[in-house]
Amino acid sequence: MKYINASAILPDMLVEELQKYVQAGYIYIPAKDEQHKSWGELSGYRKELKKRNEIIIEKYQKGVSIENLAEEYSLSVYAIRKIIYQK
Question: Fewer Cβ atoms within 10 Å of its own Cβ: the N or the C terminal residue of the chain?
């Protein structure tokens, strides 16, 4: 999230009204519920993790041990188990 000077995007009248409540501070304006994005949706990281987890599950089903998967992916044994047994 980047900060934008209110004067640059809002009408003067609205800026003056906001200044009655906040001066030289920050206001967070949340997105509407229907526009809210889930974690990782914008960056694509959620898709990357899903793909990685599918590969981990596939390797496990082909006989790769949980310990070897943990080492290969730099994850804990607990994290690998969580991925494998999530479904």
Answer: N
User: Where do we find the tokens 């949980």?
Assistant: 66
CB environment 44-68: b (16+ within 10 A), e (fewer): eeeeeeeeebeebbebbeeeeebee
Query: Domain boundaries in the chain?
Result: 6-84
At 23, is the secondary structure helix, strand, or coil?
coil
The tens digit of pLDDT for each residue in 21-68 reads 988 888 888 777 766 667 777 778 888 999 999 999 999 999 999 999
d(Cα 61, Cα 76) in Å, to the nearest integer? 18
